[in-house]
Each structure stands twice: as structure tokens, then as C-alpha cells.
Amino acid sequence: MFSGSTFLLLPCCRLDNQRVGVSYLLYGCSVQRGKQFPLFGQRPAPRFYVAAVLGLVGMVVLFWDDVAGHTLSLTLLAGIGLSALGTYGFSLGNMISARHQKRGLDTLTTNSWAMLYGTLVMGAIGLFSGSHFMPEWDTRYISALLYLGIFGSVIAFGAYFTLVGRIGPANAAWSTLLFPWWH
To answer: Which of 22, 23, 14, 46 is nearest to 33 (CA)?
Structure first.
């Protein structure tokens, strides 16, 4: 979850941020419910199927101008597909967190391991893609890095996954409605 969503959502930067955000939300909430049966043996209610179809229709309507118009390109389709795959990874991370918490594993410990794995994966991707790892040594960059590392990652994911453990991954996914979308 910590590296996959970031890597897969990079091509979406070329798409309209609000549309990607809405598709992320719609897909994520529906996938949460759908994965509960194979992973936890919880059958979705019949209304889930109606909601999933309506969500899919909503996403098609949302992206229709981009897909059906003259702007249809392999890059656009790859962006839409990768945003769906990234959202699936986000959803899978919720399910894994719920499973860990049901087994009595500590959220801080499991998040620490997941962030380490995500860092290693993103580091390897950066290394193989030829990216450089030299940070800018100015106050603005370092303070932003610390803010994102502490508040945007450790505290935010700790709080979110604690919520996942308390109310379940499907209901916690709805809290993403409250997250701001900046661009």
C-alpha cells in the first residue's frame, strides 16, 4: 500500500485531479465491500451489487468525455487503469490491516514494517529508473519532508488503520470523503 499506490498513481498526474479523486473514492469503497467475502467470509448485502453497478456507471459517465472524445490515448487508458490498480492496492492494504488487528498485532509495528517495505520498493524503483536521491538542503524542503513523514505518514496512517480496526475496512473507506484533494 505504501509504495504501490504512489507508483501506480503517478501516471494519473496527467488526468484531472478531481476526476481521479472521485474514481479513487468510488472504486475504493466498493472494492472494500467486495473483498470482504473472499478474505473474511463476509457476504456483501444485495444492495452492494446495486451500489457497485451505480458506482461503475458513475465512473464511466465521469470519464466519458476523455475516453470517448478525441483525447483517447494509450496514456489516458493507462492512467485510468493504473489509478484503479492503485486503489485496489489501497483497499488491499485496508484488508491486510484489518486482518493483522484481528490477530492482535500492533498497528504501529505493522505500519513500521509496511513503511520499510514501501521505502525499499520505491528506492529500488527510483534506483532502476535513474532517479537521484539527493535532497535539497534548505529549510523549506526539510520541514516539508519532516511534516509529510511524521504527520502525513506515521500519525495519519496510524490513526486511519486504528479506525480500520475499530469500524472495519469498508466503513473506514468512507472516511476518505473527508480527506482534502489538493493539486
So the answer is: 46
